[in-house]
Amino acid sequence: MKTIKLAALTLLAFGLAGCSTLDQLGSVGQQPKLTAIADPTAQAGYRPVQMPMPDVVAASYQPNSLFSNEARGFFKDQRAHKIGDILTVLVTIDDSASISNSTDRTRSSSSEGSVGGVLGSIFGGKVPLADVEASGKLTTAGGLSDGGSGTVDRKESLETQVAAVVVQVLSNGNLVIEGHQEVRVNFEVRDLIVAGIVRPEDIHSDNTIPSTKIAEARISYGGRGQITAVQQPRYGQQIADAILPF
Question: pTM (2 decimals)?
């Protein structure tokens, strides 16, 4: 059964690779084509955007007032505080770590016994142990040596901004946020995902919050496209790495 699954996965991988290869060969010597302007809602696979939204509150006016309760007042706090609100996350990552470990372990043991001397004294050199001398000895020795070393030298730096949406308000007032940003340049797409829990008190007056203030932060920065594809091992190499025992 495992062999059949492996063969099916291999054929599927080769099929996908073949389709990608044909697409690349068909665009040799041609400029990348621009997408025609069209109604996005009429395109195949279009799905309306659905986001968490607060409950609709009917507009009402206070007596002798020109403003409704849904108006954004001059002195109203404009920071995100309810589901559907948007705030800007200032992603700043500047981490570095340098770790060096070294271990060296050695153990040795030895023992010595006069086995021949004992036998010689017991039998007095008589046959069949006439060749056993009183000075005969038995010696054993052993040793163990183990050593290892490891070094980690890592440095990461990232500074960018991404708008996130409040998707949930916890019972204690904290906000669950999630933001996703995609930027495409030529044939490479850069993805930035930010998610976590923030306190309303940590949101600045300009409706921004640093990434260091996000609890349970999940920050992902990566990409997909031609450059990323070149950096990845080919399908055959990935399959070989998965099944080879050495």
Answer: 0.56
